[in-house]
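PROTEIN DESIGN WORKSHEET
SECTION A - STRUCTURE
LENGTH: 66
TOKENS:
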């Protein structure tokens, strides 16, 4: 059987801490920051864990990382 390829975009966007814990950043904190309030930008800085529903599809695309 051939070697499965890992998705490089997923390796850049997510951090794998354990099989049950995958970290992600919140969207919208890269550009157009002038019109966003400081309170909103502060909330966008947080790192969140990935939901259980999305975890299964992500692990399928990352066969060797987790």
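SECTION B - SEQUENCE
RESIDUE ASSIGNMENT:
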């Amino acid at each position: 059987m051939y070697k499965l390829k890992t998705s490089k975009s997923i390796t850049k966007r997510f951090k794998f801490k354990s099989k049950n814990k995958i970290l992600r950043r919140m969207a919208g904190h890269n550009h157009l920051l002038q019109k966003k309030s400081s309170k909103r930008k502060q909330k966008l800085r947080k790192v969140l864990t990935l939901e259980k529903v999305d975890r299964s599809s992500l692990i399928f695309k990352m066969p060797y990382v987790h």
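SECTION C - NOTES
The mean pLDDT is 87.
Residues 33 and 56 are 33 Å apart (CA to CA).
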